[in-house]
From TrEMBL:
Residue intervals passing through the bilayer: 20-37, 58-75, 87-108, 120-146, 166-187, 217-236
DUF6533 domain segment(s): 20-64
Keyword entries, A-Z: Membrane, Transmembrane, Transmembrane helix
Name recorded for this polypeptide: DUF6533 domain-containing protein
């Protein structure tokens, strides 16, 4: 009985740690929205419409909507079992859509850094299609096995049950694709330091390209580390 009590106490501690970690992340996202609203208005809303602008707005405000929904599910008390299950279905597909939007933006950035190289474009788009199809297939199969229960543990109004042990594999194709993008960014950065010049003539243009490459390499490395962390967390938790 004592062993069972210890297991329940540990589970409740993990629940509260997850809830408040999610709340902390939500505060950071909302704070970032608030402190960048002026730049967003000047640089995004005043600019002409384009694919990049549309993807930025979707990515920015869809993420904000996800934050609100996640905290409602974690801290609310009005969810039913069916509503809880629908939430996990929505959360799963939201994660995939958010990744696809982010990866599309990253591809556009790399395409520009390679100065509209068609071979790079075909490589990225072909890999992206395979990645999206693989991740969507894994998500569709796994999420249909989910069950959900409300108030199963104290402090957690919505709990996912019967999560397949292979669910971590959802992150494998995404991580593989991010590895490709990271390698392409590193190659571009290496070439920038070894080549005698850029396909731009002005000094300001060269400095801009150098900054974009530097920031892109850092950004892709961070994204790679983020997806790898997600994969490892799922592997450890489902082990």
């Amino acid at each position: 009985m004592s062993l069972l009590s210890d297991i329940i106490q540990d589970a409740v501690k993990d629940v509260y740690a997850s809830k408040y970690a999610s709340l902390a992340a939500s505060v950071i996202i909302v704070y970032d929205h608030l402190i960048t609203l002026d730049n967003e208005f000047d640089l995004i809303w005043k600019s002409s419409w384009s694919i990049g602008k549309g993807l930025f707005i979707i990515n920015r405000y869809y993420s904000l909507a996800s934050v609100i929904a996640n905290n409602y599910a974690l801290f609310g008390t009005a969810l039913t079992n069916s509503g809880c299950l629908r939430y996990y279905h929505w959360q799963g597909w939201t994660g995939l859509i958010a990744c696809m939007i982010a990866e599309t933006i990253l591809q556009m950035r790399l395409y520009a850094l390679y100065f509209l190289n068609k071979r790079i474009l075909y490589l990225m788009v072909g890999s992206f299609i395979l990645t999206s199809a693989s991740a969507a297939t894994i998500m569709s199969i796994a999420i249909n096995q989910f069950q959900a229960e409300t108030h199963l543990l104290p402090g957690l109004p919505c709990v996912a049950l019967h999560v397949p042990s292979y669910f971590y594999s959802f992150w494998i194709p995404i991580l593989a694709f991010e590895t490709l993008l990271c390698i392409l960014a590193l190659i571009r950065g290496f070439r920038a330091h070894t080549e005698s010049g850029y396909p731009v003539r002005s000094d300001s243009g060269k400095r801009l390209v150098s900054l974009l490459i530097r920031d892109s390499v850092c950004y892709y490395v961070v994204m790679f580390a983020t997806y790898l962390t997600c994969l490892l967390v799922w592997v450890v938790n489902l082990d």
